[in-house]
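Thread: "does anyone have the structure for this chain?"

Original post by V.I.:
We have the sequence but no experimental structure in hand. Need at least a predicted one for the grant figures.
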Amino acid sequence: MDILFLAHRAPFPPDRGDRIRSYNILKHLSGRARVHLVAFVDDDAAVTDEDRALLGECVVIPRTKSQVRAAAEALATGRPVSLTAFADRRVTAAVNAIVQRHPIDAVYAFSGQMAQYLPADVPLTIMDFVDLDSAKFDAYADDAIGPMRWMMKREARLLGAFERSVARRVTAPLFVSAAEAALLPGSRALENGIDTVRYDPQRSTPVHSAHPLIVFTGQMDYRPNVDAVTWFARSVLPLIPRAHFAIVGRAPTAGVRALAGQDVTVTGEVADVRGWLAAADVVVAPLQLARGVQNKVLEAMAMARPVVASGPAAEGIDHAGTIRIAGDARDYANAITALLNDPAGAAALGHAAREQVIRRYGWTARLTPLDDLLGLHAERQVV
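Reply from O.Q.:
Generated one for you, tokens below.
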């Protein structure tokens, strides 16, 4: 079987939320079929020989279009910016060439931006929206003012219409959680997993901290993460005496870097996030806007850390009561302080979280539904 895999960001290296998901899906499929990849790449992409060995053809195209140009194209054509930002004739040409060269039996499109490249004559099409982006922009509009509010509302409306039209014509529209899938009729969930061998506290060396350490991990130019750490540093941390807050993740914005001080560390990109997780007395995920399954929460649970998360950050995860949920600043401060004052209880909570992740979120179990969707049952040998 030949599968064409389309991705808005090449899955290499698998070191951030979307790339972790797309990489593990691609790896799963490549063990059962011949997979051809067409993907955009960012500046930090690194495609190794080992990665290419998973694939038949591998076409990666740098994404060079500016947001200003994408917005201008969107306004001129009546399309969502999310689509014009990823509209590229080079991708269209690459897709057409692969379809002509290979007997493509199925297409797996990762992220809604790539739906515009779905070939018309392939019998099986899987559209992995991951999250419902139109709902995200609708939420952004609630906090915006003036022209930006109008732009966010426009994006939500146009993108929502596009998502619904795509869902009606593909074989299976997928989302990262049941809650996300419920937002688009006819969709189903394909949940994220976690590599519990890699994310094992026994395999990691903790960084040193002289004070009780609270850790947040994530891509630090992503707006929900920026808003979360800014709120936490300003509203929650002052309520927790002697604690230190570490913001761990690449590309921190100027606003995030400005949070650094005596009680806050902003690391920027680190070689291995596991050392920070292993050192954490508590991991927090205070996101107010969170779609689907949060990898940062799964990673902390797998590392047997006690987690305090917002309702939205925990919503897509079957945590079975093994993490603490908090709302306002006082809720967070009380939950974190209670864990810091009870190391044995915190350790027990972290252990229970890891056991839950092992039971529920191994990648093999999470991706098995793809075998039925695509008729893939026998492992093939990758050479």
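V.I.: this helps a lot. Residues 237 and 301 are 22 Å apart (CA to CA).
O.Q.: and The chain has two domains: 2-193+363-374, 201-360.
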